[in-house]
Structure formats: C-alpha cells, structure tokens
Amino acid sequence: MTRLRITIAVLAATSLIAAVAAPAAAKGKPPKPDNPPLLMDVTMSGALATTCEDGDGIPGRMVMELDDRGGLSPVHLGILSLDLPDVDSTRRYDADGNLLGEYDADGNFIADEPSTGFTGCHGEQLNGSVSPYGGLVITLDDTGAVTDLFWHFDYHIETTARGRSGKPVMSVMEHFTLSGHELTWDAETSTASGWVNVLYHLEDSVHQESVGYEPVDGSPVFLEFTLTMTPHG
C-alpha cells in the first residue's frame, strides 16, 4: 500500500466515524464541530522542494494540514525551494521597503537591475514572517492525486497611520503568485506536472500604481515536482 493510499484510508475511516455519529446530532444533541485537519509530513522535490527551514523542526519535510476538502496547507511558515529560472521576477521593493529602481516623469517604474528567475528559498513575506493575506495550498482529489497548486509568496507589505484613530492602513502590498490547475499526476512516481501561471500583484498608494495579478514575462511555465506524505508523528 502506498503512502497516499494509507492517507486516503485514514480519511475514509474519519468519514465513517462522522456518519455513525450523525443520528445522535439529529436527536437534539448539539452538532459536533467539523473533523479537525489531519497533520501530514510532506516531502517535495523538483521545481518545488521542502529543503528550506520552515520552523517545523523536521529537515527536508514540511508539516501540513490536510482538511476534509483535500487541501494541504503549511502548519508553520510556507517556505519552499523554488526552481523557475526563466521568468521575469523583477519587483519594486526589497525586504526593507527600499525601491529597486525609480519612477520616471510619466510614472513608469524603471528597475535598476531587471531580475530573471526564482531560485532558492521563498516564503510568505520577504522579511521572513507569516503573511496575513494567504500562502500555499496544494489540492488533492479523492484518490490522493495532486490536482491544483496555489501559492502567494514573497510579500512586501507597508502600512501607514491615518485619521484621528491612528489605525494602520495598508499603503503597499506586493507579491508573486503561482497558480496551476488540472495538473497531471503520475501515481507510480508521485509526480505532479503541468502548466502554471506566474503572476505579479502590486497595490501601491504611495506611487498611485496598481497591477492586478498580471502574468510575468515567461509565464506560463511547465512545472514538475514530486510529493509524498505520511501521517505526522
């Protein structure tokens, strides 16, 4: 039995327990909460790899939650090694909020050094912290096959205090997104592959600029990675 089949068996058992408990709830007892997510140790290699330090204390693996809809998401930081060498990765801001170029008289951004490719470790915010606006989700179908990939990464976020209350208001939000759907799954090798969009998003009230999830040059790209998982602990 493969690791993924073991996982599906666990899910099936959990569903059976919920079905048996359902009549009790119908008799007036308060409904029980949804089944808690299962914790899984996930290993990935290839264009996406779990070789970065993500705070879970397990080298080479990532502890992820598997919910009842088949969604895998990191328990700690969503940090992966990314190998996409041929796409435009130029951005406006670095982790310290410094502009990586300048705006001309017409408001066009001119990068100091245009950047090509994503390599090495990438995570939620450039400063190494958790992003409040989403992160990594990998979707499995009922057979355990990887079908979808959605990852917001490398955020830079700035806030300013406005109004009498002085409450912080977001002034800059910049990040990239990987978005892939209907991926092909090879169960023999535990490999997912397919065409994935690489998108750039910017909301910048300081420079009055908005870029709404636009594909970067070189997108879409063909991406391939392996994924195996076992119950955590």
Quick take:
It contains 1 helix and 17 strands.
Structure commentary:
This protein has 233 residues and is mainly beta. The chain has one domain. The protein is 10% helix and 47% strand. The protein has one helix spanning 3-26; strands at residues 38-46, 48-49, 62-66, 71-74, 80-82, 84-88, 101-103, 109-111, 116-118, 121-122, 136-140, 146-162, 167-180, 184-186, 191-204, 209-215, 221-231. It has an eight-stranded antiparallel β-barrel. The longest helix is centred in the first third of the chain and has 24 residues, at 3-26. The radius of gyration is 21 Å and the shape is globular. Mean pLDDT is 85; it is low at 1-27.
Query: Level of helix content?
Result: 10-25%
User: Approximately what portion of the residues adopt beta-strand conformation?
Assistant: over 45%
Q: What is the CA–CA distance across the termini?
A: 19 Å
Q: How many H/I helical runs?
A: 1
How large is the radius of gyration? 21 Å
Can you tell me the number of structural domains?
1
For the largest sheet, list the strands in their spatial order.
1-3-4-11-12-13-15-17
- Give the overall silhouette: globular
SSE string, helix = H, strand = E? Answer: HEEEEEEEEEEEEEEEEE
